[in-house]
Amino acid sequence: MENESKLRLLYTGQILNRRTDEDNPLSIVQIIDILKKDYGISAHRTTVTKDIEALREYGMDVCKIESTQNKYFIGNREFEIPELGLLIDAVASSKFMTDKKRKNLEEKICKLASIYQEDQLKSNMFTELPLKSENEKIYYIIDALNESIRKSKKISFQYFHYDADKRKVLKNNGEVYTFSPYTLVWNGDFYYAVGYSHKHGEIGSFRVERIADIPQILEEDAIKPPEDFDLSVYLKNLFRMYNSEEKEVQLICKNHTMDSIIDHFGINVPVSKCDDSTFCATVTAHVSPIFFRWIFGFAGDITIAGPEDVCNKYKEMLKNALENSIGG
Q1: Looking at the DSSP assignment, which residues form a beta bridge with residue 65?
Q2: Phi, then psi, of 243 in degrees rounded to 5
């Protein structure tokens, strides 16, 4: 009997949380009916009313609509519907997750709302998204990375890439990498582990979903970051997470590209007016093919004005591309 009383309170809270909202309140009689039908628990009006008061004291925002038959619903929740929508969108765009893991996590997020709001969230969800990871161990890999960061221990793992036949191939003939992770970073819809790479003898990054198996956490203490290491500066200057030479580059940009400049280089990027249709931006970027491809994507609306060696590298890349293009 005592256990049934405790269960009744818990199930009443669950019923209110999952089966009510502002547009779908329930009366005491309806709650009693659900308790009996779905959970095999008998209840009376007085006990359920007391349970609702206990839930209010606990902190649940149980609202009452007063009428001949009072009705109840959950008002403020820990997450509002727009917030849950944002979380679902973030999960949906996360390329480091497999479709199976993504859908599972989306389902769990939906269950933070009422069943009626859950249907609303599901109706706005994408069901087919390209470029998803195929690494089903991703959760366990992330868990191992987090544990090694918490314990300040080195880890070891193998890394893979895809060959021309789309087969997973271990890099460097299956070499085992030793790494001292500092943090995990979500960038461009992918997860990266940032830390000290013992192979390269410097701070670097690895794509988490390209780690072949669950990393082994070693007994050795991790190499600590240098005292002057600033993660925010590192991430800001590391263009699209590719290691390359960092330089100040002058760009001449059409006015309509300002959003893109700010998106990539921040609101504080130095700019000055060139003429009525263009502006000059001085950016700090890691000069690499990735940077050049980004410039090329604007089809001449953003051009490199200097320094000269960066202009020459860009011209050389374009020349190679033309020489190796189909049809000559």
Answers
A1: 71
A2: -75, 125
Spell out the residues 6+ positions from residue 10 whose beta carbon is closer than 8 angstroms to its own.
Answer: none
Q: Does this chain's domain 2-74 share its CATH topology with 239-323?
A: no
The answer to whether 284 touches 237, Cβ cutoff 8 Å, is yes
Contact indicator for 310, 247 with CB cutoff of 8 Å? yes
pLDDT band at 102 (very low <50, low <70, confident <90, very high): confident
Asked whether the beta carbons of 264 and 306 are under 8 A apart, the reply is no
Q: Kindly report, residue by residue over 4-57, the tens digit of the pLDDT.
A: 888 999 999 999 999 999 999 999 999 999 999 999 999 999 999 999 999 999
Domains in the chain: boundaries: 2-74, 81-123, 138-237, 239-323
DSSP string computed for 135-176: -TTHHHHHHHHHHHHHHTEEEEEEBEEE-TTS-EEEGGGGPE
Q: How far apart are the first and last CA of the chain?
A: 85
Q: Which two tokens stand for residue 86?
A: 């944002």
Domain 2-74, CATH number (from 1.10.10.10, 1.10.3720.10, 3.40.50.300, 3.30.360.10): 1.10.10.10
Residue 302 CA to residue 278 CA, distance in Å, equals: 9
Please give the structure tokens belonging to residue 238: 């590391």
Query: pLDDT-based confidence at 305, cuts 50/70/90?
Result: very high
Fold topology of 239-323: Alpha-Beta Plaits (3.30.70)
CA 29 to chain centre: 43
